[in-house]
Amino acid sequence: MYTSGLLFIGTNEIIIIVVLALLLFGGKKIPELMRGLGRGVKEFKEGQKDGPDAENNPTNTANNDTVNNQR
Question: Where is the composition biased (Polar residues) (predicted)?
Fold first, then answer.
């Protein structure tokens, strides 16, 4: 039975991937990319916690105030 090749990534392959990422993006850009990824994951989790009908939910007063002020 064939299993995914990603299960067998070793130390050498990880080092090669890190070096390639440094060459492609540079040392200053990688922390910015990771920070943006972290913010995206955080917003995604908050969106899941709020639920799909969070816009129409009257308990979310911050969004309701903004919506009411825009009308």
Answer: 56-71
